[in-house]
Amino acid sequence: MVDIRFAPPQDREEVVQFMQTAFPRAKWGMSRWQALLSGRWGAPDDPFALVVRDKGALVGVLGLVTANRQTASGTYKTANMTSWYVQKPYRGQGIGGRMLEVVTADSQTTITNFSSAKGAVPVVERAGFSVLDAERCVWQPSGVNGPLRVEAEPLTLGGDISARDRQVVEDHVGLNVKPVAVETPDGWCVIVLAVKQKTDAYVTHEVMYLGDRALFGAHARAIANSILPPERAVLSVDRRFVKDGVAPDAVEAFDVPRYYTAGRMPAADVENLYSEIPLLDLKMY
């Protein structure tokens, strides 16, 4: 019978090597896998992976990006699922479900899954995951430059931005995300974007973090006009970040919803950062 458990620190390099071999189509090398499993945002004893062993041999892994972070409603621990792989001879035996039982057992940790393959959705739902979000709100450029000042280096604003905004920006220095602060008539709105060419038609400015949701809602049109180039671009914001009554240009359904373990922290506080997405420089679909 296989053994399923959290990997101890001394297994980190073995897990990195396993992932490098298991995902040959990945566009990154060992250094990116090491960064993924480094525990960048967690405590030293937080889990970085779940491993499956058969007589000591590593036959399956599930990476975890754990973070201890301050949100608008308090301090929470999250663990984003990443790079799930079980060798073929061990599939179809319920091992995947057992892995998720272990991962979700700690009621103090919110588990997230932002990029599930369609084939894995039934397993995730059977494990008790709930839909975190199923839609995005989209703003298109108006064709003219926006009226608001955009600061490309929010950390230079000092006390004009909140401690939480500052921490989020600092935590993601060196990753391929774009933090900005937009000066509205009611104060600064800090936003962290991932700018990706997902389609030939336009470039998507994906909101990964939105500091002041009410401020964004009050000035969404002007903020979009100010952030976006005048054409061939969209601002994409997950529905849970947008206050009721705010009217985007369009609402689009995700091909696969984002999932989380509900009841452990407010859904609106579960951002797209502190996850595999910025660490692996992935596109969110």
Please tell me about this protein's structure.
The protein is of the alpha+beta class and 285 residues long. It has 2 domains: 127 residues, 3-Layer(aba) Sandwich (Aminopeptidase); 119 residues, no CATH class. The protein is 21% helix and 36% strand. The protein contains 8 helices and 12 strands. The protein has a 12-stranded mixed β-sheet, sandwiched between helices. The longest helix has 11 residues.
SSE topology:
Blueprint lengths: L2 E4 L5 H11 L7 H7 L12 E6 L2 E15 L2 E13 L8 H9 L5 E5 L7 H6 L3 E10 L9 E3 L11 H9 L6 E7 L2 E13 L2 E9 L2 H6 L1 H8 L5 E6 L11 E11 L15 H5 L5
> What is the CATH homologous superfamily assignment of the largest domain?
Gcn5-related N-acetyltransferase (GNAT)
* Helix count, DSSP H or I runs of 4 or more residues: 8
Number of strands: 12
Number of domains: 2
Report the sheet with the most strands, covering strand number, pairing sense and barrel closure: 12 strands, mixed
Supply database-style keywords:
Aminopeptidase, alpha+beta, twelve-stranded mixed sheet, 285 residues, 12 strands, 36% strand
What is the gist of this entry?
With 285 residues, the chain is of the alpha+beta class.
